Every structure is written in structure tokens, then in C-alpha cells.
Amino acid sequence: MKQENFSYKLANGVIYTVLSIVGIITLLPFLYVIVVSFTDPSEYISKPLIIFPEKWSLSSYEYILSTKMFTRSLGVSAFLAIVGSAFSIIITSALSYALSRKRFLGKRFFLLAILLTMLFNPGMIPNYMLVHSLGLIDTVWSLILPVLTSAWYVFLMKNFYQEIPDELEEAAKIDGCNDIGVFIRIMLPVSLPAIAAFGLFFAVGFWNTYFNGVLYINDDSLRPMQVVLQMMLIQASTSVADPAVAAMLQSEQMIPPETIKMAAVVIASVPIIMVYPFLQKYFVKGMMVGSVKG
């Protein structure tokens, strides 16, 4: 018995040690990015490989936040995360509720159509032709409408609504509510945990918008933050770059492009990092919403 306890503790100790080492190795690049972003430019120029700087400075953050291009991109990404998530929640919850009702005419047709979007992707060219034909090129709506909802989220939320007792809907209709009233006054309050979970998923997706920004946006003032950040990251490693980004990275005196890029990475990551700890429980619940039927 003692031998088994010793073996169990030894195995746990080895596992925890290995996981701790892997965790530290994983965190090192993030710590290096933070350290470099706060390093004094003169110290970074003299010794680029820095573990713990002797001089700390906010000059990279002050410079990057003073540039119009990056601050505009922050505003575009914030608009996408807030407005895009709001529209996505409305469309997804309303569509899911309608599909969860047995009396909905054409229910099977719409379910099949939504399922097909999961199985078959039309590809980049048809998507671009559709967005172009709608006149959405170089507008923020080209970054919202094509990804307004997700078939997977619709099916999960549909199952969630099906688990809500029908007696709630019947009681509301006895009190005089129509279908829209039932949805707004009964179903939405009941489904707030699911809405919060999916809203968080949508917000993270819109905040990290990149590919559609490259594909549909040519106007510098409408580029989302991730596109601008990517352009900044490749600036130092290539001689061909966007003139606006090149001008942004050319500081007046001593600020190296590397510290500016690291500061941009930190600024882009901080909002989501701050939100995650407070809403982590919704992510856990969101993974289970609609996945189990009793």
C-alpha cells in the first residue's frame, strides 16, 4: 500500500514538474515581448538580447499611441468587436429560437441549408465576388456581414432553446404575448448565459479579424488592428512595405522598430487578456451549451 502511494506521488511529481517546465518555456516568448516593449531604446540598441532591462521606458507606447494609423486601427477593431458581436448575437439567437420551434414552416429546409454551409465552403473567390457585388469593399461591413453568424453556434443554441420547457412559452402566450414578445421577454432573459458565452466568442473573433481585412480593405483608415500589426511585424524583415507603415515605424530619433512592434503586440493583446479571467466561466459553460439533451 505504501509502495503504491509512493509510486502515485512520484508519478504526480514528475507530471507536475514536466508541465511546469513546459509552461515556463511557453511563457518565455510573451515575457520577452513585454520586457522589450518596456526597455529604454538606448539600452536596446546597445544590447538587443535583454532579459531584464536596467532602464525602463514608455517611449515605444507613447510613440505608437501617438500615430494616427495604429489608433485608427484600434478604433476599427473596437467597432468590429462591439457592433459586430451585437449583431451576431441578435441574428444567432433569433435564428436559433425560430429553428427550435416545431411549428416553424420550412424548418427542415433551413436546417439543411445551414448544415450545408458547415460541410461545403464556397471558397475565397466566390466570397469576394459576393462582397464586391454588394458594394461592401472598403467598408467595415465587409468585415461583419460575411461572418455575422456561425452554423455551429446556431445548432448549439437551437438545442439550448429546445431544452427550455414549453410551459414558459405557453404561459407567456396566455398572458397575451406574441412570438416576438415571447422571444424578447422570456427566451432572451433565460438564455443570458448562452448569449454571454457566444457573444464572447464573437467578440474575440471580430477583435482578431485579419484575413477579411487583407482581402476586402484597401483604405488605410479602415484597416483593422491585426492587419496593421502584421504589416508592422514584417516591416523589419523586408525591404518592400506599405509606405504608411514604413512612415509610422520611422521614429524621430532613437526608438528602434523592434521595441515599437513589441509594444504594438502588447497593446493588441491586453484587452482580450483582461477580459478572459472575468468571463472564463462563460467559456466553460459555452462549450456545454446545447451539447447534451435529456
Automatic annotation (TrEMBL):
It is found in: Cell membrane. Its main location: membrane. Keywords: Cell membrane, Membrane, Transmembrane, Transmembrane helix, Transport. Residues 74-279 form the ABC transmembrane type-1 domain. InterPro entries: MetI-like, MetI-like_sf. It comes from the Bacteria. PROSITE patterns: ABC_TM1. The chain crosses the membrane at residues 12-35, 74-97, 109-128, 140-161, 182-207, 260-279. The keyword Transmembrane helix applies. It is a multi-pass membrane protein. Belongs to the binding-protein-dependent transport system permease family. This is Inner membrane ABC transporter permease protein YcjP. The gene is ycjP_2.
